[in-house]
Write a structure and sequence with these properties.
The protein has about 475 residues and is mainly α. The protein contains 21 helices and no strands.
Length: about 475
């Protein structure tokens, strides 16, 4: 039994002592993760389908030239940037059970519109508004996860959530290959147009599921499947965790001062702004563009072979997230070191002029390790900002926002479609990005340690007040906010 308990702890995180809390954790794992993962799956399915459609007939049918494909991604990113912080702040005033599915319906309708586009300019307009709607999902879910889970539970759940998006990318290539083979030309529609129709059909039922079953956050949940005792426990289990502030629905101007006057916003935003660009291998489908440019591969092969990048990304994400939760210190920084080293090795192999084809395939797949840092970085930020819910919402949104600010122009400069198949500039940029990631990771690690050392006397003083009948944790947290 002891061995099984250790295995369970490693695979799924801390095991609650009480039967009621274990039952609560099982319920929120099912209803939060099932909806958020399905939502993110459909989100990433849509994003990846543009890349797959481009190499499966959209380029020729819409008469796309030069960097048109990069501009589609850039315009989507601009919409994503615009919607990021407003969407996360809306979760403070609108119930997530309403806001998440509403945004999902918006991007589902726009996905249907994409299937009917006649010009690349129409794609530009659709993708901008789609970016605004889809920006609600990623950082919003990380905010929700940080509202329900303890640090020892958070990494794995973040990893599972992130992997669901990667599964959308993986499924997209397989779906496009199947659609192209079986539906291309059906009812006078090209295979890539059918891809977006099917994508929209997949999205709508997931949104309905969210309306019905999503539990909001602990302090506002009215989920019918949670008992009154479980709702109380969902709040109390986090209140005892590092004075974590889980209140919801209150915004004030003091938030600006708390965010701008703290290193957390600067450090965490810089960390993902830099480290997120290591994902450029996958997010820009460079392997697919490389296969198309060198020739000798069929459309289904071009759609299917890059799935290996995503498969390794999923494996790396889940293994790293599981490992970081299992460590006593909950250290997240080693994952960023691992992914940076993998990216440097992959870039070096691809830069070598005489690298054989098999080694190049290995390098593309190894680069999938870059996605391992995504879940870990946001779990780390949730830990760092655990004592202030509103600051945490802004920091999480800002991390993804600044990453997308960089991503809006990064592919145009370093990964234009016209650079295929070599992408020499981009590979050297990848090496530089990996090195920068190592430096910023050290900075965040140092600042977090310094903050903990500074707060130790305050914690001891608060403990003394409680033991002597002074202010309790709730009153201290209330006065602080």
């Amino acid at each position: 039994m002891a061995v099984l308990r250790k295995i369970r702890h490693f695979v799924w995180g801390e095991i609650p002592e009480s039967k009621t809390e274990r039952r609560l954790l099982l319920k929120i794992d099912w209803f939060i993760l099932s909806y958020c993962c399905l939502m993110y799956f459909s989100n990433y399915l849509d994003r990846s389908n543009v890349s797959n459609a481009y190499v499966s007939g959209m380029k020729e049918e819409l008469n796309m030239h030069g960097t048109d494909f990069n501009q589609i991604n850039t315009i989507f990113t601009c919409g994503y940037i615009v919607g990021m912080i407003p969407n996360n702040l809306m979760l403070q005033v609108v119930r997530p059970r309403i806001w998440f599915p509403a945004m999902q319906i918006v991007w589902g309708v726009l996905t249907f519109c994409t299937s009917a586009a006649k010009t690349v300019q129409q794609i530009y307009a659709i993708r901008f508004f789609q970016g605004i709607a889809e920006s609600s999902t990623f950082v919003g879910t990380h905010y929700i996860l940080g509202s329900w889970y303890k640090p020892g539970e958070l990494g794995k759940r973040s990893g599972i959530f992130t992997s669901s998006g990667l599964a959308g990318t993986l499924f997209s290539g397989l779906l496009q290959a199947a659609v192209y083979t079986n539906l291309n030309g059906t009812s006078g529609r090209s295979g890539w147009r059918w891809l977006f129709i099917i994508d929209g059909i997949i999205t709508m039922p997931i949104a309905l599921y969210g309306f019905l079953m999503f539990p909001d956050v602990p302090t506002t949940t009215k989920a019918f499947y949670l008992s009154d005792e479980e709702r109380l426990i969902s709040c109390e289990r986090l209140e005892t965790d590092k004075n974590k502030d889980i209140t919801h629905g209150h915004l004030s101007w003091s938030l600006i001062k708390r965010v701008v006057g703290n290193w957390r916003w600067y450090g965490c935003s810089l960390l993902f702004a830099v480290s997120g660009e290591t994902e450029s291998f996958g997010s820009n489908n460079l392997m697919g563009q490389w296969l198309k440019a060198i020739g000798g591969f069929t459309v289904p092969q071009i759609d299917n072979y890059p799935s290996g990048v995503t498969a390794f990304a999923i494996a790396s994400t889940l293994v790293c997230a599981t490992w970081t939760d299992a460590t006593r210190s909950r250290a997240r920084w080693p994952v960023l070191v691992y992914m940076s080293i993998c990216v440097i090795i992959a870039s070096a192999i691809l830069l070598a002029p005489s690298t054989p084809l098999g080694a190049r395939f290995f390098a593309w797949y190894l680069a999938g390790a870059s996605y391992a840092g995504q879940a870990t970085t946001f779990a780390w930020a949730n830990q760092i900002c655990a004592d202030d819910h509103a600051e945490r919402a802004v920091v999480l949104a800002s991390m993804n926002m600044w990453n997308n600010v960089v991503n809006a122009w990064w592919p145009l400069v370093f990964y234009p479609a016209t650079d295929a198949p070599r992408f020499t500039k981009g590979l050297w940029a990848m090496v530089g990005t990996a090195i920068a990631t190592l430096l910023v990771t050290w900075f965040v690690w140092y600042m977090e340690r310094r903050e903990k050392r500074t707060r130790e006397p305050e914690k001891e003083e608060a403990d003394e007040r409680r033991s002597s009948g002074g202010e309790d944790e709730k009153s201290v947290a209330s006065r602080r906010s």
